[in-house]
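Exercise 3.2. Students should predict the tertiary structure of the chain below and write it as structure tokens, then compare their answer with the key that follows.

Predict this chain's 3D structure.
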Amino acid sequence: MRRRHERLSMDMPVVERTVKVTGEHGLHLRPAEVFSRLAMSFESEIQVVYESVCVDAKSILNMLTLGAAPGAEIRLTARGADAEDAINALAQLIENDFENPQTTRRDADADGAP
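Answer key:
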């Protein structure tokens, strides 16, 4: 298992997806907190790009600086061993209006699930 402090290799998989923010109020405090918490559960480096601003998805404050209003199209980018899982979970969270975040593999392992 890769440790968090190890640098990500340039040959690690990179996954990108563009999604539309559908929430009634856009990416405000609560959605940013839910999004960042889910992003932190993955080992991959995850970034969000809106217009010309690129931020670390694992930082609530950085996510708030995006100012993504309802209907905004944001690009999710992840690099790392679990990049595809991360992007799928985060895209699903946005598509579900930031409700019921998907359980990550790490969460399932901690709960003793197969």
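Discussion points: The chain is about 30% helix and 20% strand. The domain at 21-99 is CATH 3.30.1340.10 (Histidine-containing Protein; Chain: A;).
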